Amino acid sequence: MGNIINVKELAAKYKEEIKAFALQREKEGKSVPTLATVLVGDDEGSKYYLQSQTKVAQSLNLGKVNLQLPAETTEEELLATIHDLNSDRNVHGIMVLFPLPKHIDGKKISAAIAREKDIDGVNPVNAGLLFMGDRAFVPCTAKSAHTIIKETLGDITGKNVVIVGRSNIVGKPLAMLLLADNATVTMAHSRTKNLAAITRAADIVVAAVGRPNMFTSEYFSPGQTVIDVGTSELDGKITGDVKTDEAVEVAEYVTSVPGGVGAITTTILMKNVCEASELEQ
């Protein structure tokens, strides 16, 4: 029988560090680390996430600016809003919530966010810096998975990692982070042949496909660490890619859904805001 990783406890540790950082800046007479989040339209998932962000930011004594724009906002108007936030010295991090209305080019919007304020790593410049091994902001979900792995296992030099999922917000950036740690990384996906045999041979398995309960016990072997990044709705409940009760019977460490990667993602976002505040001129 394996162990469910206590991600909430890990998040609590980082929250205390963030609070201490914000207090120290206040003592030094510096500005409060502040996140500006832009929501265009009325997507319910985005509205819920915005509320969650605001609650976490306030609990950590960080600044929070919420800009809620109507669905008919033009691309030019949204770009102008981002330009204003880029120029605002009191704003250290900028996040535009997706999905955007269909008439707005998401790639153009992501590229418009100033690199030093792009705390969710969506600007292609940050993606390129990550690829080159330079300092960059990384998508928070990928950074969260990476943080859990490092906090649980420590040095992962030479470990074999299989990431199932090749998205720009999880699979690809996480692979770059793990390669920088000298892990050996295999990128797989839902169409990979003999997937179960490949995952069983790994030391660490990251499931990021978005198919509920896809990964049953046959995908795992003793001693593994299993990180479940997938979130889907099944029978009215949030469900991960991994069938947790089966995985924990085989693997040594497993994250659950809910209570796993998602339990620390917003905290990591706020940590990025703090890091961005140190870049202000």
Can you put this structure into words, describing what you see?
This protein has 281 residues and is α/β, with parallel strands linked by helices. It folds into two domains: 87 residues, Rossmann fold (3-Layer(aba) Sandwich), CATH 3.40.50.10860; 124 residues, NAD(P)-binding Rossmann-like Domain (Rossmann fold, 3-Layer(aba) Sandwich), CATH 3.40.50.720. The chain has ten helices and eleven strands. The strands form three sheets. The protein has a six-stranded parallel beta sheet with strand order 1-11-8-7-5-6. A hairpin with a 2-residue loop joins strand 9 and strand 10. Helix 6 runs parallel beside helix 7. The longest helix is centred in the N-terminal third of the chain and has 21 residues. It is globular, with a radius of gyration of 19 Å. The chain starts with a strand and ends with a helix. The model has no long low-confidence stretch (mean pLDDT 96).
